[in-house]
Automatic annotation (TrEMBL):
Reactions listed under catalytic activity: a 2,3-saturated acyl-CoA + A = a 2,3-dehydroacyl-CoA + AH2
Species this protein is from: Streptomyces uncialis
Domain Acyl-CoA dehydrogenase/oxidase N-terminal span(s) in chain numbering: 61-166
Domain Acyl-CoA oxidase/dehydrogenase middle: 171-267
Protein family according to the UniProt entry: Belongs to the acyl-CoA dehydrogenase family.
Keywords recorded for this protein, A-Z: FAD, Flavoprotein, Oxidoreductase
Cofactor(s) it depends on: FAD
Official protein name in the record: Acyl-CoA dehydrogenase
Domain Acyl-CoA dehydrogenase/oxidase C-terminal: 279-437
Biased composition (Basic and acidic residues): 10-24, 636-645
Residue segments, region Disordered: 1-24, 621-645
Gene Ontology molecular function terms on file: acyl-CoA dehydrogenase activity; flavin adenine dinucleotide binding
InterPro entries in alphabetical order: Acyl-CoA_Oxase/DH_mid-dom, Acyl-CoA_Oxase/DH_mid-dom_sf, AcylCo_DH-like_C, AcylCo_DH/oxidase_C, AcylCoA_DH/ox_N, AcylCoA_DH/ox_N_sf, AcylCoA_DH/oxidase_NM_dom_sf
Organismal lineage: Bacteria, Bacillati, Actinomycetota, Actinomycetes, Kitasatosporales
PANTHER family linked: ACYL-COA DEHYDROGENASE, COMPLEX I ASSEMBLY FACTOR ACAD9, MITOCHONDRIAL
Length: 645
């Protein structure tokens, strides 16, 4: 029996170093969000709103029309929820439609859709069945197609992309039972053996893994002669000898998702299937996610649109105290929040997607902000819909139908959306990831000043370098266009809501955000990375400012194109008013909060000081370890791999 690969012993500093080395170094293209965190409101980078080419629009709209017909006639969302499985015939239909190859170039048999239309397609199909949205997204956004598009050889593209476009489902395997967002501890091994690698290890939460034909696997290559080693990416045939799907996982939502536990025991993979160089695996994964993350907020946009439709229809017919509940302020405020937030979230996703298509800007922060903001706001919108529906919101669609009412799956939407705050980087990890990128300019000039392991001589040189940077940068944070009453007047045309005042707020708040970040770095220096509460609020403020900017730019774009301009301005205005309230509260909480008190309670809790508070309950949890042992079982488990013909 093959033993499990040993788990690397990694210090905190080593773990940070691995993550740092995987980052995309440098900024070769401009970034609106990066500038925003530096106190520079570069409206010119997003306005006028970029637009797709006519041919891209034509091809995209044609596919959306066919996809909508498929969703309405061949997807039984209630059956998927009831059986916790997407029927094989539905997946086969998606293959025939070309949905597996939406983002794959036409020369490889794909549809060649832009990021904008790929996201629109995911928003559409995700409302028919979030599980299908997850299948298509995992296959194309993080599965085999995207990393091969960015890093694969021509031979790899020619071999695998035509399969992915029409017949083969792919999955991405990074997470392990004891490894989540800390990949430095990755244990799955890929040992070189001639012109092959031998894989051993266990992967957890392998979305699409149960039905996949092709896998992208991250494994650690040991350092040796001719092998620099490190975490490396491989394309692996899912039916290779030694691969076993040991479990099909079940969740509170996305019940049709094909997510499992996959074990590798002596799996031989040709060296020709390695993506990029040895040690480049994490960089490949993170770069792939720069645009891949946009698929998740795209489906959140679809969820918001559906929530708005149900809230509007229901609250107009449900009466309380002599009038429809929509006309009661407590309910009306929720409807306003859903409408305004859906508009802004679509603005964020469309703007980021179009920038990704044009490839003029570096959108690593924008995409991360879209994922963070979309997942949090969609969850809130679904929660508000459940509240608007009252008891019917808590009742299942099946139960509603059984007693003769419209089968509205509001509670399912809430369950299905919950994972988005964890998928592809939890909210907490996204805060840290975005914060790292947001302070990159500071660390590049002053990082050595706060590094305890840097020599005094190097600190002196860093001090001189930082002095020059801050002498130029800090004075620019004092005044700006946001203090000029006539700034951004193009966003206040006659007869329309005043969006110029909101853009002036964004400009002022951007400078305030940069000043707050600088003050915090000066105050905490090397301890800054431990102030996760502060960093999270900094990022959340930036997300609100980005969403406000996108909403205003989208409203002006719709006005100039004659497409619901008046209504768009109204929605953007209300959203910005709501966002300003949230941002102002976050600014106040930067310095007035319970972070230190919370840390004391945490330490006391872990020390057992409050175990008396846990008395008076029973724990229905079953027996077993908190984290499963990854050693091969004495009796091999049955292989649950179920490829779809």
């Amino acid at each position: 029996m093959t033993a499990s690969p040993p788990k690397p012993a990694v210090t905190e500093r080593e773990a940070r170093q691995v993550a740092e080395e995987a980052r995309e170094q440098g900024w070769r293209r401009p970034s609106f969000a990066k500038e925003l965190f530096l106190g520079r409101f570069r409206l010119d980078l997003i306005h006028p709103h970029p637009a797709p080419a006519d041919d891209a629009v034509r091809r995209g709209e044609e596919f959306l029309s066919r996809l909508r017909d498929f969703c309405e006639t061949r997807i039984d969302s209630a059956r998927i929820e009831r059986e916790a499985r997407i029927p094989d015939e539905t997946v086969t239909g998606l293959k025939e439609l070309g949905a597996l190859g939406m983002k794959i170039d036409v020369k490889y048999g794909g549809l060649g859709l832009t990021q904008v239309y790929y996201n629109k397609a995911l928003a559409l199909v995700g409302t028919a069945s979030p599980a299908i949205g997850a299948l298509l997204s995992a296959h194309q956004s993080i599965g085999v197609p995207q990393p091969l598009k960015l890093f694969g050889t021509q031979e790899q593209r020619e071999e695998f992309l035509p399969r992915c476009a029409r017949t083969d489902i792919s999955a991405f395997l990074l997470t392990e039972p004891d490894v989540g967002s800390d990949p430095a501890r990755l244990a799955t091994a890929a040992v070189p053996d001639g012109d092959e690698y031998v894989l051993d290890g266990v992967k957890l939460w392998t979305t699409n893994g149960v039905v996949a034909d092709l896998l992208v696997v991250m494994a650690r290559v040991p350092n040796g002669e001719g092998h620099p080693g490190g975490i490396t990416a491989f394309v692996v045939e899912a039916d290779s000898d030694g691969i076993t799907v040991e479990n099909r996982n079940a969740f509170m939502g996305l019940r049709g998702i094909e997510n499992g536990v996959t074990r590798f025991q002596g799996v031989r993979v040709p060296a020709a299937n390695r993506i990029g160089a040895e040690g480049a695996g994490l960089k490949i994964a993170l770069t792939t996610l720069n645009t891949g993350r946009l698929s998740l907020p795209a489906m959140c946009v679809g969820a918001g649109k559906w929530c708005l439709k149900i809230a509007r229809e229901w609250s107009a017919v449900r009466e309380q105290w002599g009038k429809p509940v929509a006309h009661h302020e407590a309910v009306g405020a929720k409807i306003s929040f859903i409408a305004a937030t859906t508009f802004a979230l679509e603005a964020v996703v469309d703007l980021s997607s179009q920038m990704a298509d044009e490839n003029r800007n570096d959108i690593r922060i924008e995409a991360a902000l879209a994922k963070l903001y979309g997942s949090e706001m969609a969850w809130l919108m679904a929660d508000e819909l459940v509240q608007i529906r009252g008891g019917r919101g808590f009742e299942t669609a099946e139960s509603l139908a059984a007693r003769g009412e419209r089968a509205v799956p509001a509670e399912q939407m809430l369950r299905d959306l919950r994972i988005n705050r964890i998928f592809e980087g939890s909210t907490e990890i996204m805060h840290l990831l975005i914060a790292r990128e947001a302070v990159d300019a500071h660390l590049s000039v002053a990082g050595d000043l706060i590094d305890p392991e840097v020599s005094l001589q190097d600190k002196a040189r860093a001090g001189a370098k930082a002095g020059g940077f801050y002498a130029r940068w800090l004075p620019r944070l004092v005044t700006g266009a946001g203090q000029l009453p006539n700034a951004y007047t193009a966003f206040h045309p006659g007869g329309y809501a005043d969006l110029a005042t909101h853009l002036r707020y964004v400009e002022r708040a951007s400078r305030k955000l940069a000043r707050s970040t600088f003050y915090a770095m000066s105050r905490w220096q090397g301890r800054m990375e431990t102030k996760q509460g502060f960093l999270g609020r900094i990022v959340d403020i930036g997300a609100e400012l980005f969403a406000m900017s996108a909403a205003c730019v989208r409203a002006e774009h719709l006005r100039t194109t004659g497409d619901h301009g008046k209504e768009a301005y109204q929605l953007a205005d209300v959203f910005c008013q709501q966002a300003r309230v949230r941002a102002d509260e976050l600014f106040g909480r930067l310095w007035t909060n319970t972070d230190e008190a919370d840390r004391k309670v945490v330490r006391a809790t872990l020390a057992g000081a409050y175990t008396w508070l846990e008395q008076g309950v029973v724990d229905p949890s079953g027996d077993g370890p908190w984290i499963a042992d990854t050693s091969p079982p004495d009796t091999p488990r049955p292989d649950l791999h179920r490829p779809i013909p």
